[in-house]
Amino acid sequence: MAHVSNDKFLSLRARAGVTRDRWFFYGTAGWARADTRLTYQRDDNISFTDSGRSKGYTVGGGVEFALADHISLRAEYRYQNMRSTEMTGTDEIVQWDQKFDFKAKTELKTDQVRLGVNVRF
Questions:
Q1: Predicted confidence (pLDDT) per residue in 8-61, tens digit
Q2: Which is it for strands 71-93 and 98-119: parallel, antiparallel or unpaired?
Q3: Of 3, 22, 96, 105, whose CA is between 20 and 30 Å from 44?
Q4: What is the dihedral sign for C-alpha 52, 107, 3, 11?
Q5: Are 28 and 14 in contact (CB under 8 A)?
Q6: pTM higher than the cut 0.85
Q7: Sign (positive/negative) of CA torsion 114, 77, 84, 3?
Q8: Using CA atoms, how far apart are residues 56 and 58, in angstroms rounded to an integer?
C-alpha cells in the first residue's frame, strides 16, 4: 500500500483587480511549493519512505468586502498545479540478503476555496 501526504504549502503570489465602492474583485497568480512524503509498505519486510519538494504554479480569483476601514471579509478560489516529483531509494531485506530499488513519481493538483477575515493595522 502506498500513501502520499503533502504539507507545508507555500505560495508567492501577486493580486490585481478592480474596486467598486467597498468591493475588491481580483485575480491572483504566482509560484507554489509543497513538501511531499511517499510511504510504501508491501509487507513487514519491504517498505520505503522518501520525501521531496513539489514546485509549480497557482492561479485563482476572489472578492473582498470592506466591513470597515481596517476589517474586510474575503472569499477566494485557487488552483495549484505542481510538477511531478520523482522519489527513489533502496531497501534491503537482511535475512534474504537482497536489495530492492524503488522509483515513484507524485503529481499534485489542488482546487481550494478559502474564506478569510483581514485586519489591517
A1: 889 999 999 999 999 999 999 999 998 887 777 766 666 677 777 888 999 999
A2: antiparallel
A3: 105
A4: positive
A5: yes
A6: no
A7: positive
A8: 7
C-alpha cell at 84: 511531478
Strand partners, 113: 77
Look over the chain and give the mean of its residue pLDDT values, rounded to a whole number: 85
In 3D, which of 80, 67, 78 has the Cα closest to residue 26? 78
Q: What is the grid cell recorded at 49?
A: 519512505
Secondary structure (3-state) at 94: helix
Task: Tell me how far apart the alpha carbons of residues 114 and 62 are, in angstroms, rounded to a whole number.
Answer: 9
Cα angle 96-100-101, degrees, rounded to a multiple of 5: 170
**The three grid cell numbers given for residue 38, joined into one nine-digit string:** 511517499
Q: What CA–CA distance (Å, rounded) separates 86 from 50? A: 10
